[in-house]
Specification:
This protein is mainly beta and 116 residues long. 0% of the residues lie in helices and 57% in strands. The protein is globular, with a radius of gyration of 13 Å.
Length: 116
Amino acid sequence: QVQLVESGGGLVQAGGSLRLSCAASGRRFSIDRMGWYRQAPGKQRELVATITSGGTINYADSVKGRFTISRDNAKNTVYLQMNSLKPEDTAVYYCNAVSVLVLSYWGQGTQVTVSA
């Protein structure tokens, strides 16, 4: 099975930056898509960004132009560079990985808090 370990969350002021990392353990060749989702208090979990093993990227409209997702296939690690952070970006950010066998794995989440 795949295990995901997230890091990089924290408290920043509006306009600041954070870089999230998520390392996937297990069989690297089994991972097709990795990405980030977030969930704010009282809201549903939503897509932030995803990237496939082939490099296809999808961003939520709310983060496009501010966030950048990247992937190191050799390390089986996905990153989320978050710039120009806004208070509305405050949420728990979850790493996700989907295998070629259509199995979905989730990290435990990392808190991102953006103060005004």
